[in-house]
Write the structure tokens for this entry.
Amino acid sequence: MATQPIPRFPDGFLWGVSTSAHQIEGAARLREPSVWDVFTAEPGRVKDGSTAAVACDHYHRYREDVALLADLGVDAYRFSVSWPRVNSPGGLDFYDRLVDELCAAGVRPVPTLFHWDLPAGLDWLERDTASRFARYVTRVADRLGDRVVRWITLNEPAEHTLLGHALGTHAPGRTLLFDALPAAHHQLLAHGLAVRALRAAGAAEIGIANSHGPTWPASDDPADREAADFYDLLLNRLFSDPLLTGRYPEGIAELMPGDARRVDADLEIIAEPLDWYGVNYYAPARVGAPQGAKTVFGGLTLPAELPFSVRAIEGRPVTDFGWPVVPEGLTELLTGLRDRYGDRLPPVVITENGCSYEGLDDRDRIAYLDGHVRALHGAVAAGVDVRGYFVWSLLDNFEWAEGYARRFGLVHVDFATLERTPKASYAWFREVLRAQRAPVG
Ligand code: IFM
């Protein structure tokens, strides 16, 4: 399916695709277990009862997957390093081979150092997990740093805190609501310590992948506005403010663990300057005053005690996951981040954007990506310094508590045979990349 030409992005713009270790690697027996292995072994945790023991078997098929990346023509590949695998004999060798294969194919490796698969037995409620993370990061950087230039510390600490520690729909399955905040603080501290560890190991370009989305009040009613502001605080500013301003937003600091002086000292570490800021964008949220327990998009049920409720965004197409398709939300989000943080916002890279749809002739995915890439161009035209865009995801994969029921890939994976088949969106993205690189005029 051809679309109208997409406006030209600035020279040097980085085009890529993303995946994560637990969602694609498989070969679970060749590594230590993670909190996700423990979680998926508990009945009822994953909707289709599946596990990531085999997933896409990328561990054994990485050469085929790198060939797909090369054929697609991306500049870069964002993958994650599994901490439990690095803890296991020969684990780092796998990433060594993967990075070599990528470099040989002319695709820049962009590793994420934590994408939710914490080694079983570790816990983000424990402060010490942050120091352990920094030691693991040093090991990875010492091994891969001669070939890796761009690093990502954490993926979406907001979702990992909310879904894993506050609501319990993701590993480790805790339902702590606001008592989950220490897990957020310790991940942010781990991020800051990792930035220092990476710099000490000579790394040049360090960022984080934070999920963000505009929050729209359900109405002008002050109760809806207040609820939306609190939601925005928890899902957006709780993570970007400390990183970019060195302070927690008002209303959060007093909920944080430890005495205030200790948190202040931690904030200095958390606010280590970043070389770039990764944004994962999927959809905005429309939020109003509490309405009792309600199921929101993605089948997630928010408990009645929360001081907000998430409402449907009417009049928009939705993905198979039920997420509304709102491309202009990306422009709004990026101009909003620029307005809030000004010079403190480093150059932005969209580290994830994508949608779940069935089928090989995935025109809905093409429409989604086309709309979002144009909206991203809108942000560039509005003066936001955006340097890259990564589609989530290269492959259909293990979509956490949804199992294999949600397909985000440009490449279809038959989970019975593990055969890979590029979808129509893969061909579309390849054409977009070719057009972006064609000589001007
Ligand atoms: O699959 C996830 C990914 O692991 C983190 N960001 C959102 C994606 C889609 O839900």
Q: What stands out?
A: The mean pLDDT is 96. Residues 95 and 352 are 21 Å apart (CA to CA). The two ends are 25 Å apart (CA to CA). DSSP finds 13 helices and 15 strands in the chain.
